Amino acid sequence: MDIKDLRNLLKMVTNTDITEFEWEQGEERIVIKRGQVAGGMQAAAPSMVMSAAAVPVAPAPGAAVAVTPAPAAEEEEGFETIESPIVGTFYRAPSPDSDPYVEVGSVIEKGQTLCIVEAMKLMNEIESEFKCRIVKILKENAQPVEYGEPLFLVEPL
């Protein structure tokens, strides 16, 4: 696989909801994983991983693929994040034609529903553990989320 094909492959994976992609042909093997990676950092772009034989996976001799980590969480002093307690799909509203549970600027009471995270066909309501104001919604509707991944930036009240 040449560098042009690899770039096209990375672009395709980046522009879809695919979280893991594996390709093998002869001695070439490419594994691309998106989302939560070891060390708890979110990958900004797909990353190349090691093959089972602990040999770096490379598309072609001499080709280099740069992987840049995502910037640190957007926490500012006085703000906290509300994280996903489970792996699943993030939904802002109870149904596609309903209003979202919360908007930026909403004041939320303890126990109020913030969103839904669907896991294995079960809709899990995520509730606030404290009174707060929504500063930023960090995920898009129907986006996959990992355990511990920030969903909301909030100001405790």
Automatic annotation (TrEMBL):
The keyword Acetylation does not apply. One of its GO terms (cellular component) is acetyl-CoA carboxylase complex. Keywords: Biotin, Fatty acid biosynthesis, Fatty acid metabolism, Lipid biosynthesis, Lipid metabolism. This is Biotin carboxyl carrier protein of acetyl-CoA carboxylase. Residues 79-155 form the Lipoyl-binding domain. This protein is a component of the acetyl coenzyme A carboxylase complex; first, biotin carboxylase catalyzes the carboxylation of the carrier protein and then the transcarboxylase transfers the carboxyl group to form malonyl-CoA. The lineage of its organism: Bacteria, Pseudomonadati, Thermodesulfobacteriota, Desulfuromonadia, Desulfuromonadales. It holds the Pfam family Biotin_lipoyl. Pathway: Lipid metabolism; fatty acid biosynthesis. InterPro entries: AcCoA_biotinCC, Biotin_BS, Biotin_Carboxyl_Carrier/Decarb, Biotin_lipoyl, Single_hybrid_motif. One of its GO terms (biological process) is fatty acid biosynthetic process. It comes from the Bacteria. One of its GO terms (molecular function) is acetyl-CoA carboxylase activity.
